[in-house]
Amino acid sequence: MGISEKADSDHAIAGAVSGFVTRFTCQPLDVIKIRFQLQVEPIAAHDVSKYHSMLQATNSIVKDEGVLALWKGHVPAQLLSIIYGTGQFYAYHRFTKFSENLQIPESLKRPTQFMGGAFAGCVGTVLSYPFDTVRTRLVAQSTNRLVYKGIVDSFGTIMKTESPRAFFQGLWPTLLQIAPHTGIQFLFYNIFTDLCKFYSSDSSSSMTKSMFAGSAAGLVAKTAVYPFDLARKRMQIQGFEEGRVGFGKFFRCKGMVDCLVVTVKDEGIKGLFKGLVPSQLKAAATTALHFTVYEQTVLLIQRHRVS
Hints:
By secondary structure, this protein is mainly alpha-helical. The protein contains 9 helices and no strands. The longest helix has 36 residues, at 3-38.
């Protein structure tokens, strides 16, 4: 492997490490977010609502299912994050090198960063999507009504009782969400990073700058495309009604547009933003960790190679 290929692989390895660390740290917020997204009833103190708030939902999950339930679906989620992180950062690195070779003018710098992020997000999503579907179903199922015993059983059961297409249910709304989401994410990460370099002192560590830029970029990006994330989760549980016993009314839809229309019709515009707060907290934390761990890992690998 030549020097150039080794340098390219550094970004893939760093992306995998970044995905692993980020997922392990932020999985509980993801579990709560998914439970909120799949609840048709209001996220409020209501007689028919299982979950009312982040604190109440956390206490309820721990009380009813145990502390480890906050890491439900963690194994497929880790595989998802590692594969996604590897594909995303490697694709973005290659896109950046390609655009540099084209000598794109400075005036197109920001649009290019957006396009690179969108492309990277789509690559990572397609590669990791089956694990996302399995993770969602493992998180969504009731402890008292276990349909799947684990990740291997999940893959086998879905293949046997449904079809390979079931692993990719909700892929289109996911790509519609992920392309602008990662585009905005990389764009604003670069913008905030440049602002940090301009306004902060030289003594500020690169890690601090990465944490700030990443959290701010994650918050902006997640809020902008959140309804598509909700639609993806609701589409991924279609055909999984038996596993949702005890969680309230089951949500049914026929596709992305129908999902959004039915949600607004039954739950109002606010329904499109169920789980937004834990999602924003998760996005800020995960994006900060994602970029910081990625950059620090690349630096560590490169320093080790030099020494």
